Amino acid sequence: MTSIDIEAFRSALVDERRRVEHALATLRDEHRGSLDDEVEEVAATSENHLADNASATLGREIDYTLGDNAEQVISEIDAALKRIEDGTYGTCTNCGQEIPVQRLEANPWASLCIDCKRRAEGA
């Protein structure tokens, strides 16, 4: 395996995990109540326009999707950190081939080489 700077990748992963956790916490802080509470608040302050209610619903759905994505990224980062601890970081979890450093630099939590990733995505 080509020598990669494991500590640099560990540091990048930890930093990215902190950044994503902060973004997720901010997202949750902005939406403490339920969607029903938000729609009721919009309805009380506007003249109960259907478009305002729809905008509130759409905005919350987008935020839920962003939150789900952030949680997925945190999970993938945690898995990459575990691979560092196990000594398997940089190795494709599917085929066992080395993941090129350029791919890891672009996506430090990558678990698949580009060929396996393409096959997994059906490309």
Q: What would you note in describing this structure?
A:
- The chain is mainly α and 123 residues long.
- Helices cover 70% and strands 0% of the residues.
- It has a domain at 6-89.
- It is built from five helices and no strands.
- Helix 1 (6-30) runs antiparallel to helix 3 and helix 2 (35-45) packs antiparallel against helix 3.
Sequence stretches where pLDDT stays below 50 over 5 or more residues: none
Structural class: mainly alpha
Order of helices and strands: HHHHH
Arithmetic mean pLDDT:
83
Largest sheet: none
- The count of DSSP E runs of length 2 or more, i.e. the number of strands, is 0
Question: Measured on Cα atoms, how large is the radius of gyration?
Answer: 20 Å
Beta strand %:
under 5%
Number of helices: 5
* Helical content (DSSP H or I, runs of 4+): 55-70%
Quaternary form: single chain
* Global shape: elongated
